[in-house]
Amino acid sequence: MGRLLGYLAVFAMTYAFYVVFTGAISVFSLAIGALMSAVVSVVVKPLVIPGELRASDLARLAYLVAYYFYYMAVAEVRAHAKIAKTVLSRRMEISPAIVEVPYYVKTSYGMTLIAGSITNTPGTVVVQVDTERRLFFVHWLFATTFEPGKAREAISVDFERFARRIFG
Fold it and tell me: At a CB cut-off of 8 Å and minimum separation 6, what does 64 contact?
């Protein structure tokens, strides 16, 4: 049953992304999407889910999907709006700086997810990682603080919350 659950999880995620991103509403489009999602799940499932799925794995997958939608619909939109406002305003109200941002996840996958999220969000980029001290050095276009804890709150705390739930 766990093996079948893995295929169904990959199928559901693939099909959901297909429907959302194509806006498919016709029966033909939905059927083609279902067929292709089934093919993708057969090919991809052994690569992304090597064993049987457990309930805790499904919860992690749900957090991954929730993170994706949070990142694309909230974090990215907010950051792009701030950059657009800055670019279009008559006064450049920026205060660029490199700040230390601590992270507390224990896995390299979690650390990579957070660093990638920071870098892909307009206005911030991770320029260096100190894994021994668990610090990101982030170039922040709108620096409001140099205190590491406050910088973490402003830049990465939401990303880290998801990373901890997804990767432990």
Answer: 166
Is the pTM value of this prediction over 0.85?
Answer: no
The alpha carbon of residue 155 and the mean position of all alpha carbons in its chain are separated, in whole angstroms, by 14
Look-up of token digits 């901890």: 164
pLDDT tens-digit series, residues 70-109: 888 889 899 999 999 988 988 888 999 999 999 999 999 8
DSSP string, 29-63: HHHHHHHHHHHHHHHHHHHH--S---HHHHHHHHH
Measured between alpha carbons, how far is 159 from 155 in angstroms, rounded to an integer? Answer: 8
Residue 13, class by beta-carbon neighbours within 10 Å (0-12 exposed, 13-18 middle, 19+ buried)?
Answer: buried
Three-state DSSP at 99 gives strand
